[in-house]
Amino acid sequence: MTNFRSISRGFASLLLAMICLGASAQPTRLYRAGPTADASFLRFVDGTGGGVTATSAAGTVVLTAQQASTAFTPVASKWQVKGQVTKNGKQAHVAVDVQPGEFVTVVALPGSAEGLALQLLREQPDDFNAIKASLGFANLAEKECEAAGLKLAGRDTFLFEKADAKTFSRRLLNPVDVSVQLTCGGKPVGAALALGQLEAGERYSVLAIPDTKGPRLIFAHDSLTQ
């Protein structure tokens, strides 16, 4: 009974924090010196184009095409976070075990006719830097985009080449204004994505997502809820 109450409280805190994020709370940056050993964080990303709802008995948060990602929310480590994501009557159940020091991203993707697909991306960051920006890249569209890469838009400078499927690759960048281009097999695919001005000490993520019109990019600021 104690475990059930602990899990319920953990997921309730997660959803309430995300609801506050959508309303008025301002996200804060990740710790410049790195998280404490027992800290764990979780966020949701909508890779379906907008309209995914995350729900539990505690409340609901809706993601949109304009705000496809929540901030990272602290959760109790070594406990299973449970809930459900839905869109247009389709659903997928969430059951995530988050380990100490982990940053877990739950990505909702188009799935079968009966439901949505969920993809987990796990990181234990070790690249915190106060004078550089950290950019991560993950390819969740490996069927549509083999040997996925990310290069500076309008240039032949690659930031990532042949990214591993369903995991984050990450590197440090100077804090400058950046636009990026997805490549598949070394060839540009889709439109360039403006990331804007990257800030020193901040962390960011770009995800390649499958789409009916071809793979596309989603950009997220790896911020924390307060």
TrEMBL record:
<keyword id="KW-0732">Signal</keyword>
<dbReference type="GO" id="GO:0051301">
    <property type="term" value="P:cell division"/>
</dbReference>
<keyword id="KW-0132">Cell division</keyword>
<feature type="signal peptide">
    <location>
        <begin position="1"/>
        <end position="25"/>
    </location>
</feature>
<keyword id="KW-0131">Cell cycle</keyword>
<protein>
    <submittedName>
        <fullName>Cell division protein FtsQ</fullName>
    </submittedName>
</protein>
